[in-house]
Known about the structure:
Helices cover 43% and strands 22% of the residues. By secondary structure, it is an alpha/beta fold. The chain has three domains: 7-121, Beta-Lactamase (2-Layer Sandwich), CATH 3.30.450.20; 133-289, Alpha-Beta Plaits (2-Layer Sandwich), CATH 3.30.70.270; 316-552, EAL domain (TIM Barrel). The strands form four sheets. Strands 13-14-16-17-18-19-20-21 form an eight-stranded mixed beta barrel, surrounded by five helices. The radius of gyration is 30 Å and the shape is globular. The protein starts with 6 loop residues before the first helix and ends with a helix.
Amino acid sequence: MLDNLTGKDKQELTYIIERFNQALDREALLILIDSEDKIQYVSESFYRVTGLHKHQVLNSHYHLFEEGYVPSRSLTERKEMLIRNENGAIHPYSGTILSIFENSPPSKRYALFVLQKEPLNEKDDQVKKKEVLIDEFTLMPNHQALKKVISKKIVNGSSFTLIFFEIERFKSYLEDLGPFSSEDLLIEVGVRLKSLQTNDVSVYRYGIDEFCLVSDECVVPDTPRSLITKLTDLFNREVTIGKQVIKLSVNIGITQCVDPAISFENVLDQARSAMRCSKETVECNFTWYDSTACSLYEKKLLIEKRLRTALIENQFHLVYQPQIDLRQKRVVGVEALIRWQDRVLGVVPPSEFIPIAEETGLIIDIGEWVIEESCLQANKWKEEGLTLRMSVNISPVQFQHREFLDNVKATLSTTQMDPAFLNIEITENQLLYHLSKGHLILEKLKKQGVQISIDDFGTGYCTYSYLKKFPIDTLKIDQSFIQDLSIHANDEAIVTSIIDLARNLNINVIAEGVESREVMSFLDDSNCNEMQGYFYCKPLMADDVKQFLHDKKAETMLGIS
């Protein structure tokens, strides 16, 4: 927020906002907009009133949240706003507009809305109830009207089809076009959609970028003249607003209601869930509601939501799996593994939440936490007389992030971790997909003194020539080869070849997933440097690692006690 302000101006504006927050009552709203009418700050009361989240509000044009907004070229000193929450209720506010830094260049000018809640009198209440049934720009029935129509159909026992669709990037287009041109876009979308209206089909604007069709007939998507085909065709045509040509597209969810016991909310949730699922569908842009498929998608959304909470509430923890040197017959390092237990979801395995974290970008913050926590733990053990190499897995998304190297360097500095005992693990395909950039990142890591391992080696396409080029310290043989050693002769040949290859390049080798004495003996005879796996030890909590090593279970397990 306020990145274009200098330290002094930013401090002054922050002070003004803080003073207003302290002076005003709990229901008062503060809305700070920049010279482009985009929201740069709102008070916590705004989120309570609207039910929205920061990512839905900040950097959006303020008029998107104002019912009955009328474009204006200038702001007056007084402001009256009708703010609609996510459930459609209207909240009237009025107050003062303060101009801030009005003598500064346009890019540094701001306006602060200081708004108090106003009561609705009986006359105004009747007017607002009428207004709320019609969308101001498209002149289509809105979400309140949709609820009335569907609820009535359910009460009457009528069967119908609800088509819920979202126009992709529509919010961005509205914001980029500005208040006047965005109104033209809304009007054009309204005109196109109203062309679908018949005696059996009604059209509604549900939200900023969400619309609905209600059909009294069964909709068959694969019929050429079907409603879905017509809807898709409408948005295949480009829209010209001024000199700008816009290509719109839609994601469509469909559900049919034949159950008289269902509620409006249930019908809407089904159609919306199907719409969200359609975003994952490559073949077409529409999806029929299916409870199993949509439940999986909804679970994915829930995991994403809970991941964000987990970061805020520090719900993650690390466990550590010992790595044993087969020559020295002792533990020389551990691999840090993330675990997550959520209040709502319970224990969520990494195989479920890591891909979602990568897809959403949350893996950046999670990965930074893992590195920092691992370094802090390694230092704590060192202070207790236990020096161990700390291995940390790095996601491809995290590895390619522009701040990855700086974050590693900063973490080493703040935690006072000896970089020689930090081992960064990446997969071989991470290097091959981003060859030149990957090589540069590894070189800079090595200059920091960090060790580098190739994880899951043997599952990708890394060649001898690539291994010679990259500054690799360790190869970790994928557990899929290790676990079947006693069954498949081919796996024995592959593992032996990898060990010989690494030895020729003076690279350390760790075998993952060792679960039997026979496999351990084979690795020992083949001159494998290290191993880890459940045969020796499952991952341990930090407090259990020191006691486990103190009991000398490595020597006992390896048969030398």
